[in-house]
Amino acid sequence: MAEVILENICKTYGNSFRAIDRLNLSVEDGEFLILVGPSGCGKSTALRMIAGLEDITSGSLRIGGVDVVDMPPKDRDIAMVFQSYALYPHMTVFENIAFSMRLAGKPKAERKKRVDEIARTLQLTSLLDSKPANLSGGQRQRVAMGRAMVREPAAFLMDEPLSNLDAKLRVQMRAEITSLQKQLGVTTIYVTHDQTEAMTMGDRVAVLKGGVLQQVDTPKRLYESPVNAFVAGFIGSPSMNLFEGKLTGDELTAGTFAIRLQDAAFVRRPGLKSYAGRKIVFGIRPEHLYDSSLESGRKYQTVPAKVTSIEELGSEHIVHLNIDAVRVDSGDPDAVQDFGMASNAVAKFEPESAVRSGSEIRLALDDTKLHFFDPETHLAI
Amino acid sequence: MTRQKRSRHRLKRTVAPYLYLSPSLVIIGLLMLLPMVTVISYSFQNSAVLRRDSSFAGLKHYQAIFADPVFWASLWHTLYFTCMSVIFHMTIGMIFALMLNSDRINPTLRNILRVLYILPWLFTAVIIAVIWRLLLEPNGVVNSILMQLGIIGSKIEWFSSPETALHAVTFANIWAGYPLFMVSLLAGLQGIPKDFYEAADIDGAKAYQKLIFITIPQLMPIIISISLLDFIWTMQVFPLIWITTGGGPIYSTEVLSTYTYKLAFSSYNLSQASASAVVILLISLGLTLFYIRYQKAR
Prior knowledge:
The structure holds 2 protein chains of 2 kinds. Chain A is an alpha+beta fold. Chain A has helices at residues 43-51, 93-103, 108-122, 137-149, 167-184, 195-201, 219-224, 229-234, 263-268, and strands spanning 4-12, 18-27, 32-36, 58-63, 66-67, 78-81, 155-159, 187-192, 204-209, 212-217, 241-248, 251-254, 257-260, 279-284, 289-291, 301-312, 317-323, 345-349, 360-365, 371-373. In chain A, strands 6-7-8-3-9-10 form a 6-stranded mixed sheet, sandwiched between helices. A 5-stranded antiparallel sheet of chain A has the order 13-12-11-14-20. A 5-stranded antiparallel sheet of chain A has the order 15-19-16-17-18, with no helix packed on it. In chain A, a hairpin with a 2-residue loop joins strand 4 and strand 5 (66-67). Chain A starts with a strand and ends in an 8-residue tail after the last strand. The relative contact order of chain A is 0.12. Chain B has helices spanning 3-42, 60-67, 69-101, 107-122, 125-135, 141-148, 165-190, 194-203, 207-235, 239-244, 256-265, 270-297. Chain B contains 12 helices and no strands. The radius of gyration of chain B is 25 Å and the shape is flat. Chain B has a single domain, classed as MetI-like (MetI-like fold, Orthogonal Bundle), CATH 1.10.3720.10. In chain B, helix 2 (60-67) packs across helix 12, helix 4 crosses helix 7 and helix 11 (256-265) packs antiparallel against helix 12. The interface between A and B is medium-sized, with 23 and 18 residues.
């Protein structure tokens, strides 16, 4: 077990394309760190550089206090779980798990003892003689985990290990991997593009965009205090609603409506005062918007909105709305654009809500939960 | 729907597939089945083709060829020629495929090599035979290079000496046939996921271990299929041997195909030639059944 420290890591490809720009990260011993970001943000490249599968253009990388920049993958004392699992189809589950021990020339008895031990932990004992083709997605995933565990590495690297599973199994494996990681206590770096995985699994989450680290923090802090509009939009599902507004005194105006801000908002954000009379970007999460006709929404200020469509999920309603304000793009390339521009906001209502598609409603919002960003830099205020 | 209509509909559905198949069935019947049956019937007749009133001969012609030492020599030569060809086709094909698939070779050089390596495949058997007859002539390039390098002391008559002729034709056939393996294995190599090698790198596999534990097992289906096909095809090679040595000198390169040809068109013993052809057919059939069973098992 060991800590993994990345200092000013850069990756430049031949055509001077910079995939990773001065990445600084420190993963503590036994920590579960998630690298998350939209596609093409460099998260997999970063992981592959830690594994030694990609050269590091500049910067330093230490695993367990040892500088490993010039070391081949096998000497870095890491194990990797691939997105495809990379299980050898011609080998049985036992042979797959024992492969690294076989390469290292470990005696048969030792191999058997260790693989049996791991198979018990992962509930694979009855499958040891099967070939990967005869396993289900979840079982294959566990074999891939077993192959990583057998080496007792200083750190686990996982590259989107759940993305080949169906939604239900993914939820189950999420919990399994998290508890396994806690049980083993091995430093783990886990790459995903799925912010739900990031929020539910990691001790800390590092958000990357365009090869640049945006924020590293606990899931709760990322959700509550995103450093910029990108993180605000990327973390949370559905995404935070971001709009252009103008601050006049203690009033935030957007389109034809105004929201009165409480003094506490200015106390918490001393910088907010300097935006008086200027443009500002404000954001509110769907779960902080309420149906004003229900008890939960009565105590908040309201703004006019038109319901464009509703997704009834049983436990909640995802309501797509149109409000009179200009929507701001958080900069997430994977975000789905509403090309019809029929809706520009999303709210999560309780299932009791009786709003109908096409109706004009008063939308209640919890103004203490508003986020503010600079309109130019998109940095949080 | 009346009963009559229903039964007509059923009849249509039963007959229709055979109607669609009939053109190809007729062609296969005329071009393959008919000649095969004719040859088999000839092998049981006295003076087949030559006389109209040819009589039934039983197994006489089979007994005759099995008693002929030249037949057994031909069978042995065929086996040697085929086995060596297949083994070297596979080995050379594999080495070249690995080279062409390697990232370590400059892409431009790789493209040039790709063209060079595939060249033998573009030549017909006649051209290959002529090329190697010229190269392996007593006064040819090969002898001159080997003598200059001091590997041989005097000129060797590669195709005309009984000691070297079989090796020489086998060599020419190896040269002509490896590209099939190379191309097939290259396609196979390109289909092996990169993850397998990266996972092995992390597990500490050396280059030879990756070859043994990943590459070869992954290519096994291709290696077995192409080897079986190559075995079937090489067993029947005729033009290369016919043009280079004609089966000589003193039967030293006689293979089943040239042996049969000579029986038929030099000795005009068409009945015995048919018996010999049936033997070739049976061997090929055995291999083909093996191939089909293997393909089905996959």
